[in-house]
Design brief:
Arc Repressor Mutant, subunit A, three-stranded antiparallel β-sheet, homodimer, 4 helices, alpha+beta
Chain lengths: ~120, ~120
C-alpha cells in the first residue's frame, strides 16, 4: 500500500452525505449551481430527466433543508415555478463536490497501476 | 442557460449506477483500484471504516456481480481473506468514475458564476 493510501478511514469518504449523494439530487443541484439565476421547474425536469412527482419530492426535501428556494411568478404570461440554489446550499454542495473530487483523484491515481495476476498460495472462494 | 448546459437529460447522470454509487461501495472499490495487488479484509475494513458485517455484505454483492474476487490464504501464519478487484470490475468502476468526473467538472465550471440576488416579480413560497 502506498503511503498516500494508508490510514484508518482513508477511503470512508464521510463527506458524501446521504441527502446529497443520490443521483437525482446530484443532477438537480448541479443544474442549479450551473444556473445560479434559477431554473424553471419545467427546465429542471427536462435537464434531469425526472417526472413531475420525483422532481417535486426532491425539491421539497431540498427546500426543507434550506438548500434551494422556490418562487412563484409569471413568465410569458403563464404562471411558473422557479427554483434557485441558496447561498448555504451552494456552499454545502461545493463541499460535497470537493469530496467527489477526492474520489476521482484517488481512482485516477490508481488507473495506471499494475494489472492483477494469479496469486500463489491463495485459494479463490 | 449556457449552451454547454442545455439538452434533455443533460444532468441526469445515467452512468451513476445504484450498486456502485453508494458511499461504502465507493470506498471499497476505490481502495481496491488503488491497491490492485489486493487488500486483506482487515485492511479494507480499516481503510473504509466499516464493520465486519457491513464489509462482508458489500463484498458479497460485489463478488456476485463479478467486480471483486475473494481469496483464502495465510499471511504471517494466520488464515486471512484477500479481496481484489477483477479486470471487469476495474473497467466498470472506471466508467463510473468518468461520470463522477463529469459531475465535478459541471460543478467546477459553475463555481465562479454570479451570486444569487432577489428576484423582481417572483414570490417566494
Amino acid at each position: 500500500m502506498s503511503d498516500a493510501h494508508k490510514g484508518t478511514g482513508r477511503f470512508s469518504y464521510d463527506g458524501l452525505e446521504r441527502d446529497l449523494h443520490e443521483r437525482a439530487r446530484l443532477g438537480i443541484l448541479t443544474s442549479l449551481v450551473a444556473n445560479p439565476e434559477g431554473l424553471l421547474f419545467t427546465e429542471l425536469k427536462d435537464l434531469c430527466a425526472l417526472t413531475d412527482g420525483n422532481l417535486n419530492r426532491h425539491i421539497g426535501k431540498l427546500k426543507e433543508s434550506g438548500m434551494v428556494e422556490v418562487w412563484k411568478g409569471f413568465k410569458d404570461n403563464r404562471p411558473q415555478t422557479l427554483c434557485r440554489i441558496t447561498k448555504a446550499g451552494r456552499a454545502r454542495f461545493l463541499e460535497y463536490i470537493a469530496v467527489l473530487e477526492q474520489v476521482v483523484e484517488d481512482a485516477a491515481a490508481a488507473e495506471h497501476a499494475q494489472k492483477t495476476k494469479p496469486l500463489k498460495g491463495w485459494t479463490p472462494i
